[in-house]
């Protein structure tokens, strides 16, 4: 394998990992505040649809992104209303959101476009273009750095860069700001935060809203940056893989980021190794590669390589004592 | 916390949730620009009136009874079994393997019970690993069962497109099982008895599902084990203190739950289709969650809720024929809303209903 090949593989890994990174960061923020987010998949799907539908109707990718953020935050608020305000079961609420999204996207898609649940395929102007960074052509012949800059760093769409930036942002927000300290405290011991006179409810609402925004960007990536329109069940389990990556990364931003890259690499690589005999193991069916993220997460959860410790108050609604 | 009288808890609240879900769905239909009452009539006709419609409705009901019971049994121990989808899928594999091995010579009365046992065993097995991990390693069962849904789906694709793929077929699906392994259709039985019934995929899996309901009722409310299970669901520390072996109970409850989900496969494999096709559980495992919530975990409630969802699914297919703007996915929307209202927002109405009832009682 040449250096260029490696750059190309990493490039497609990053592309596949983008929705995973954004959704996993969303889950991380929400769960660090103590709110389980099984609904990542639903928010991803709904925002992918909203982005494509709005972009198809207005011809603007930016309106598409806004619509994606809007619907995703709306679903987050539904989740918050059920789980924070009414202290409902967080897992059930998440499942409800996933099923709602998978029904609503098709119902709305058929009603709006009459194409069996798809949106019309989007013209170039209604999508986020690839961004060519300066120097990607002129430096292309520089050994090592040229291919690295041109293939891996340059030429992605806006949401890909946002995904990479989301990681240090979430880290900074949660570990370097007062808001983040409180947010994490609310996921570990809400009573302490409450007794300091800070609203547990409002903190958790802000956490799920941030999660909604991040999922919204991920959805826009699927349908108006990476793809050119929405198709049914477009999220295809990516929200769940993101959930797995979040656990695999033990609720820590950089570990989660690398887990997403690893899972993205497996998926990007799965297509390449199909039908190729590998050393030692021979030919591996593609299905086996595709379920590896789930298997790895189960093994991790079983405590066989390090213990994954969730936030202590995860999934527990906060009841104020009177 | 405020307690409601039983009739309010078991009848009023589910009906209120259903009305709310239908109300929101009706608003969506209105927003699309169609008449919600017209859509409702189309669905009711599709579910009950047309020839064979009721049979289809009861056929779907059968699926939902099994997956609803599966969720409910686990839920009585405060365990969320989200893996019904995967367990039903693997149940199909279990029954299929029995049929492939034995259906060339074994007569039906022997083969069918074995195939049913195969479905239950594989369903139980697929729930067993998450259960063991929860019981002995503390891994969160919700996450592991979700993961096992995907692992199961991958495994089934590999198997159905690989060794078990029917030769000369381009779709990944198994060969048809022998006639001896098939559960008789209800319409065949009734027609033989002199009734004139339209054909439908409704088969003997339906009475088996009702038997399973009775079995679950006995198990949960009439045995020592069921008492221990419910005690554990109420309070795990109390259960430990009372000497209930919590870890073993978790494993047993999940195995039973998985077996019930696995039994869903007999309705399609041994009943309607005679073969295992790709993704045959098609979301029915998830619907089980809605059924169990709406049925309040009780077998009678589950039968009623399963019937409701059976009618919704069968009626929903009729939407596709009648409207160009509304599709059967409307039913998924209703399902999501029901889960939201009767599960996640279950506590929303309790205060004001109890206030309402309290005022009535006081006056």
Q: What's the helix count of chain A?
A: 12
Residues in helices of chain B, as a percent range: over 70%
Main sheet summary of chain A: 2 strands, antiparallel
What portion of residues of chain A is helical? 55-70%
Nearest-angstrom radius of gyration of chain A? 20 Å
The overall average pLDDT of chain B, rounded, is 89
Could you give the order of the helices and strands of chain B?
HHHHHHHHHHHHHHH
Low-confidence stretches of chain B: none
What's this model, at a glance?
Chain A has 322 residues and is an all-alpha fold. In chain A, 68% of the residues lie in helices and 2% in strands.
Can you walk me through this structure?
The complex is a heterodimer of chains A (322) and B (363). With 322 residues, chain A is mainly α. Chain A has helices at 3-32, 40-58, 61-85, 90-113, 145-153, 158-176, 178-188, 190-195, 200-226, 238-248, 253-273, 286-301, and strands at residues 130-131, 156-157, 277-278, 282-283. Chain A has one domain. Chain A has twelve helices and four strands. In chain A, strand 3 and strand 4 (282-283) form a beta hairpin. The N and C termini of chain A lie far apart (66 Å). Chain B is mainly α and 363 residues long. At the A-B interface, helix 3, helix 4, helix 10 and helix 12 of A face helix 5, helix 6, helix 12 and helix 14 of B.
Can you lay out the helices and strands and say which pair or pack?
The complex is a heterodimer of chains A (322) and B (363).
Chain A: H1 3-32, H2 40-58, H3 61-85, H4 90-113, E1 130-131, H5 145-153, E2 156-157, H6 158-176, H7 178-188, H8 190-195, H9 200-226, H10 238-248, H11 253-273, E3 277-278, E4 282-283, H12 286-301
Antiparallel strand pairs in A: 1-2, 3-4
Chain B: H1 6-32, H2 36-49, H3 53-76, H4 84-102, H5 108-137, H6 141-160, H7 186-192, H8 205-221, H9 224-234, H10 236-241, H11 246-273, H12 284-294, H13 299-322, H14 329-344, H15 350-362
């Amino acid at each position: 394998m040449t250096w260029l090949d490696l750059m190309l593989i990493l490039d497609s890994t990053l592309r596949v990992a983008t929705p995973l990174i954004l959704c996993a960061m969303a889950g991380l923020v929400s769960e660090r505040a103590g709110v389980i987010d099984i609904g990542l998949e639903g928010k991803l799907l709904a925002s992918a649809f909203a982005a494509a539908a709005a972009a198809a109707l207005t011809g603007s990718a930016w309106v598409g992104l806004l619509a994606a953020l809007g619907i995703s935050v709306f679903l987050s608020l539904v989740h918050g209303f059920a789980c924070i305000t009414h202290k409902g079961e967080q897992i059930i609420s998440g499942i409800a959101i996933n099923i709602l999204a998978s029904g609503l996207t098709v119902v709305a898609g058929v009603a709006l476009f009459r194409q069996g649940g798809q949106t019309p395929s989007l013209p170039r102007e209604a999508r986020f273009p690839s961004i060519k960074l300066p120097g990607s052509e002129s430096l292309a012949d520089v050994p090592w750095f040229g291919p690295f800059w041109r293939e891996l760093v340059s030429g992605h769409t806006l949401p890909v860069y946002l995904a990479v930036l989301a990681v240090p942002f979430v880290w900074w927000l949660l570990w370097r700001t007062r808001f983040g300290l409180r947010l994490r405290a609310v996921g570990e011991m809400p009573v302490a935060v409450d007794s300091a006179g800070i609203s547990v409810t409002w903190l958790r609402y802000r956490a799920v809203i941030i999660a909604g925004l991040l999922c919204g960007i991920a959805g826009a990536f699927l349908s108006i940056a990476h793809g050119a329109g929405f198709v049914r069940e477009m999220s295809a389990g990516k929200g769940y893989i993101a959930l797995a990556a979040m656990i695999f990364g033990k609720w820590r931003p950089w570990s989660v980021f690398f887990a997403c890259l690893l899972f993205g690499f497996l998926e990007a690589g799965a297509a390449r190794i199909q039908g190729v005999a590998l050393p030692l193991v021979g030919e591996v069916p593609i299905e086996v590669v595709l379920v590896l993220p789930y298997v790895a997460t189960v093994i991790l959860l079983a405590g066989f390589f390090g213990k994954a410790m969730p936030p202590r108050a995860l999934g527990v609604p906060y009841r104020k004592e009177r | 916390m405020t307690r409601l009288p039983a009739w309010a808890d078991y009848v009023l609240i589910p009906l209120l949730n259903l009305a709310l879900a239908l109300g929101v769905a009706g608003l969506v239909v209105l927003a699309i620009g169609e008449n919600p009452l017209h859509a409702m009539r189309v669905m009711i006709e599709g579910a009950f009136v047309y020839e064979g419609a009721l049979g289809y409705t009861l056929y779907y009901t059968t699926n939902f009874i099994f997956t609803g019971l599966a969720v409910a049994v686990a839920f009585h121990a405060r365990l969320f079994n989200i893996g019904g989808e995967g367990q039903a899928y693997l149940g199909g594999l279990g029954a299929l393997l029995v049929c492939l091995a034995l259906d060339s010579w074994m007569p039906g009365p022997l083969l069918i019970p074995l195939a049913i046992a195969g479905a239950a065993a594989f369903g139980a097995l697929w729930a067993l690993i998450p259960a063991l991990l929860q019981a002995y390693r503390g891994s969160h069962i919700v996450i592991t069962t979700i993961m096992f849904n995907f692992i199961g789906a991958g495994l089934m694709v590999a198997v159905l497109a690989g060794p078990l793929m029917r030769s000369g077929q381009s779709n990944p699906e198994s060969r048809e099982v022998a006639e001896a392994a098939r559960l008789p259709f209800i319409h065949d039985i009734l027609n033989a008895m002199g009734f004139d019934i339209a054909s439908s995929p409704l088969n003997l899996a339906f009475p088996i599902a009702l038997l399973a309901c009775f079995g679950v009722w006995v198990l949960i409310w009439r045995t020592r084990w069921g008492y221990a299970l419910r005690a554990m669901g109420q309070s795990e520390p109390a259960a430990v203190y009372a000497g209930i072996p919590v870890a073993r109970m978790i494993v047993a409850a999940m195995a039973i739950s998985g077996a019930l989900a696995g039994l869903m496969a007999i309705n399609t494999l041994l009943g309607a289709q005679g073969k295992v096709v790709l993704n045959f559980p098609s979301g029915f495992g998830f619907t089980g969650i809605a059924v169990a919530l709406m049925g309040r975990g009780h077998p009678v409630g589950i039968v009623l809720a399963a019937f409701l969802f059976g009618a919704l699914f069968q009626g929903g297919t009729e939407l596709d024929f009648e409207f160009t703007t509304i599709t059967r996915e409307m039913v998924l929307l209703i399902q999501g809303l029901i889960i939201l209202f009767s599960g996640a927002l279950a506590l929303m109405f309790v205060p004001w209903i109890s206030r309402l009832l309290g005022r009535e009682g006081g006056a």
